[in-house]
Amino acid sequence: MTDTPSKTRTTRRPDCVTQLRMGNTALTVSGCFKQDTTDTAADKMAKVLEAESCCQQRPGA
User: Fold this and answer.
1) In sequence order, what are the residues at sequence separation of 6 or more whose Cβ sits closer than 8 angstroms to the Cβ of residue 26?
2) DSSP-assigned states of every residue in 5-53
3) What SS3 class is residue 53?
4) In DSSP terms, which residues pair with 4 in a beta bridge?
């Protein structure tokens, strides 16, 4: 068996952690945001809403 090289990334604490419990099971999801981004959360949500509005079908069309 060969040794796999370790990754050179530095470990940092996640920016957000969410835990969901269902009975005896706990699901933990953690995430990190890009450190060098210039977009705010509001900018990202505006892009999502714009993309959704372009894809929706209009009734009767």
Assistant:
1) 19, 20
2) PPP-PPP---SEEEEEEETTEEEEEEE---TT----HHHHHHHHHHHHH
3) helix
4) none
4-59 residue pLDDT tens: 666 666 788 888 899 999 999 999 999 888 888 888 888 988 998 999 888 877 66
pTM, two decimal places: 0.41
Radius of gyration of the chain (CA): 20
Residue position matching structure tokens 């705010």: 40
Q: End-to-end alpha-carbon separation of the chain, Å?
A: 62
Token digits of residue 55: 């894809």
